[in-house]
Input
Amino acid sequence: MLHSEVLRQLGFALQGIIPRTIDEIFNIIHREESKKESKIQHEIQVSYVEVYLSKVKDLLNPLNGKGNLRIRESFEKGIYVEGVTQKLVSSTTEVHRAISIGESNKIIGEGRNFASSILALKVKQTDKETRVQRTSTVSFSDLAGLPRKYSKLSKKMDSTLRRRQFETLSALGQVLKALTQRIKHVPYRDLKLTRLLSDSIGGNAKTCILVTASPAFLDMEKTLRSMRWGRRARLVTNNPKVDSSAATFEDAKRRAPPHAQAT
Output
């Protein structure tokens, strides 16, 4: 085997979940578009946000919205971040370049341990003949945990950050509790992070949750807490469905009152 081929395979083996998923998405698209009978046109956009102390920051344009974007909701878009940068990409290289820009704009210092981030790839499929569109979004959410105290932080700052992060984790716990116990009111709106994750947790999505653990004895309490959180999250049932312009029209038509349907 050639040396370059060995390095190529070794590089792939060392890749994480996000690079592998991005590669697979583009491989599927290229295979589909290379078919002679293919009638589908694809468009991919990437966005990257950070949620820190109840503020939503656009990592691809940190000055956007003065560093604090608003979360909106509409029938057409669902839950979305108003004005967030959605960069049009056509290759894995362009996606990785966008991720690098986002990583460089994340909060620095110990506060980074308390920030969560959401990387989203929006894939729009358009039938060239019927013009029917289908939209899918692949989101990668990195949720902050509750780290131990750090000597570099002042006691006041450390206490404030830990309290806010505890509130975040508690809000996530309340959402999971409401979903698993079939409570009618799910408190997604209590926190910006839970509102952004509403599709992933009990909504219109297929979700995979990875819970990280440490083998260190000092981290035993945190590991057990993480495992309990993951066990509760497994009980949540999502309701994924096709999101297309045609399906949206038919759903709206069925929900409309009789006199509206007649017109």
Observations:
- Residues 11-251 form a domain with the Kinesin fold (CATH 3.40.850.10).
